[in-house]
Amino acid sequence: MKAYKKMKMRILMFLSFFLFLSCTSDHSFSLDEKRQTIVVHNLLVIEIESDSSQTDEGHLFFITKENPYDTKELDTIRLQGQSSGLIIKKGDSSGYKKTQIINLLSNRKYTITHSGMGGRVRIQEYFWTDSTGNLRVDPTRKRKVGYRDS
Fold this sequence. Notes:
By secondary structure, this protein is mainly beta. Helix content is about 15%, strand content about 40%. It has one helix at about 1-25, and strands spanning about 30, 35-40, 45-50, 60-65, 75-80, 85-90, 95-100, 110-115, 125-130, 135, 145.
Protein backbone atom coordinates (compact mmCIF):
# COMPACT_ATOMS: atom_id res chain seq x y z
CA MET A 1 0.00 0.00 0.00
CA LYS A 2 2.85 2.39 0.84
CA ALA A 3 4.55 1.62 -2.47
CA TYR A 4 1.30 2.46 -4.30
CA LYS A 5 1.03 5.83 -2.54
CA LYS A 6 4.68 6.62 -3.29
CA MET A 7 4.20 5.78 -6.96
CA LYS A 8 1.01 7.84 -7.13
CA MET A 9 2.82 10.81 -5.54
CA ARG A 10 5.72 10.52 -8.01
CA ILE A 11 3.33 10.47 -10.96
CA LEU A 12 1.47 13.53 -9.66
CA MET A 13 4.75 15.41 -9.13
CA PHE A 14 5.92 14.44 -12.61
CA LEU A 15 2.67 15.63 -14.23
CA SER A 16 2.67 18.84 -12.18
CA PHE A 17 6.20 19.61 -13.32
CA PHE A 18 5.25 19.34 -17.00
CA LEU A 19 2.06 21.34 -16.50
CA PHE A 20 4.12 24.07 -14.91
CA LEU A 21 6.55 24.05 -17.85
CA SER A 22 3.71 24.34 -20.36
CA CYS A 23 2.46 27.52 -18.67
CA THR A 24 5.78 29.29 -18.90
CA SER A 25 6.32 29.31 -22.67
CA ASP A 26 7.81 32.41 -24.25
CA HIS A 27 5.35 34.86 -25.84
CA SER A 28 7.70 37.80 -26.33
CA PHE A 29 8.25 39.71 -29.55
CA SER A 30 10.98 41.95 -30.89
CA LEU A 31 11.47 44.43 -33.71
CA ASP A 32 14.31 44.13 -36.20
CA GLU A 33 14.58 47.80 -37.18
CA LYS A 34 16.96 47.16 -40.05
CA ARG A 35 14.76 44.53 -41.75
CA GLN A 36 11.47 46.08 -40.55
CA THR A 37 10.16 42.77 -39.20
CA ILE A 38 8.58 41.77 -35.93
CA VAL A 39 9.56 38.31 -34.67
CA VAL A 40 6.91 36.82 -32.38
CA HIS A 41 7.32 33.78 -30.14
CA ASN A 42 4.16 31.63 -30.00
CA LEU A 43 1.89 34.10 -31.81
CA LEU A 44 -1.64 34.37 -30.44
CA VAL A 45 -3.02 37.83 -31.34
CA ILE A 46 -0.92 40.89 -32.20
CA GLU A 47 -2.55 44.31 -32.25
CA ILE A 48 -0.77 47.32 -33.76
CA GLU A 49 -2.48 50.62 -32.91
CA SER A 50 -1.47 54.22 -33.51
CA ASP A 51 -1.96 56.99 -30.97
CA SER A 52 -4.07 58.95 -33.44
CA SER A 53 -7.71 59.58 -32.55
CA GLN A 54 -8.58 59.42 -36.26
CA THR A 55 -9.58 56.01 -37.59
CA ASP A 56 -7.78 56.31 -40.88
CA GLU A 57 -5.97 53.80 -43.07
CA GLY A 58 -2.92 52.96 -40.88
CA HIS A 59 -4.51 53.27 -37.46
CA LEU A 60 -5.20 49.68 -36.33
CA PHE A 61 -4.10 46.17 -37.37
CA PHE A 62 -4.98 42.74 -35.93
CA ILE A 63 -2.67 39.84 -36.80
CA THR A 64 -3.31 36.16 -36.09
CA LYS A 65 -2.11 32.85 -37.50
CA GLU A 66 -3.86 31.63 -40.62
CA ASN A 67 -3.91 28.14 -39.09
CA PRO A 68 -4.68 28.44 -35.35
CA TYR A 69 -3.38 24.89 -34.80
CA ASP A 70 0.06 25.69 -36.24
CA THR A 71 2.68 24.85 -33.61
CA LYS A 72 5.50 26.90 -35.11
CA GLU A 73 7.29 28.73 -32.28
CA LEU A 74 8.42 31.80 -34.27
CA ASP A 75 6.39 33.92 -36.67
CA THR A 76 7.73 36.83 -38.70
CA ILE A 77 5.56 39.85 -39.45
CA ARG A 78 6.93 41.89 -42.35
CA LEU A 79 6.20 45.59 -42.13
CA GLN A 80 7.36 46.19 -45.69
CA GLY A 81 5.98 43.36 -47.78
CA GLN A 82 3.72 40.35 -47.41
CA SER A 83 3.78 37.99 -44.44
CA SER A 84 2.98 34.34 -45.11
CA GLY A 85 0.83 32.16 -42.86
CA LEU A 86 -0.83 35.13 -41.15
CA ILE A 87 -4.22 36.83 -41.26
CA ILE A 88 -3.91 40.62 -41.17
CA LYS A 89 -7.02 42.73 -40.62
CA LYS A 90 -6.92 46.49 -41.00
CA GLY A 91 -9.35 48.60 -39.01
CA ASP A 92 -10.75 51.93 -40.22
CA SER A 93 -13.94 53.96 -39.81
CA SER A 94 -15.97 51.44 -41.85
CA GLY A 95 -14.87 48.32 -39.93
CA TYR A 96 -12.22 45.64 -40.52
CA LYS A 97 -10.87 44.50 -43.87
CA LYS A 98 -8.48 41.69 -44.68
CA THR A 99 -5.18 42.92 -46.10
CA GLN A 100 -1.79 41.47 -47.09
CA ILE A 101 0.40 44.46 -46.22
CA ILE A 102 0.82 46.53 -43.06
CA ASN A 103 1.17 50.16 -44.06
CA LEU A 104 2.15 52.23 -41.04
CA LEU A 105 1.78 55.99 -41.25
CA SER A 106 4.82 58.24 -40.84
CA ASN A 107 5.50 60.35 -37.76
CA ARG A 108 3.16 58.43 -35.46
CA LYS A 109 3.46 56.60 -32.16
CA TYR A 110 2.35 52.97 -32.17
CA THR A 111 1.56 50.48 -29.41
CA ILE A 112 2.01 46.80 -30.19
CA THR A 113 0.22 44.34 -27.91
CA HIS A 114 0.58 40.54 -27.95
CA SER A 115 -2.33 39.07 -26.02
CA GLY A 116 -4.35 35.97 -25.35
CA MET A 117 -4.76 33.17 -22.81
CA GLY A 118 -4.36 35.11 -19.57
CA GLY A 119 -2.38 37.98 -18.09
CA ARG A 120 1.08 36.52 -18.59
CA VAL A 121 0.63 36.61 -22.36
CA ARG A 122 -0.33 40.30 -22.53
CA ILE A 123 2.86 42.09 -23.58
CA GLN A 124 2.72 45.73 -24.65
CA GLU A 125 5.57 47.67 -26.20
CA TYR A 126 5.83 51.19 -27.62
CA PHE A 127 7.22 52.32 -30.97
CA TRP A 128 7.25 55.32 -33.30
CA THR A 129 7.53 55.75 -37.05
CA ASP A 130 10.00 58.09 -38.72
CA SER A 131 9.25 60.33 -41.71
CA THR A 132 9.53 57.37 -44.11
CA GLY A 133 7.15 55.15 -42.09
CA ASN A 134 9.88 52.88 -40.65
CA LEU A 135 9.07 51.55 -37.19
CA ARG A 136 11.52 52.32 -34.35
CA VAL A 137 11.58 51.33 -30.67
CA ASP A 138 10.49 54.12 -28.32
CA PRO A 139 13.31 54.28 -25.73
CA THR A 140 11.33 56.59 -23.44
CA ARG A 141 8.66 53.99 -22.55
CA LYS A 142 9.08 50.60 -20.88
CA ARG A 143 7.55 47.34 -22.02
CA LYS A 144 4.48 46.22 -20.00
CA VAL A 145 3.84 42.57 -19.19
CA GLY A 146 0.45 41.52 -17.80
CA TYR A 147 -2.51 43.73 -17.01
CA ARG A 148 -0.97 45.85 -14.25
CA ASP A 149 -0.08 49.48 -14.91
CA SER A 150 3.14 49.34 -12.88
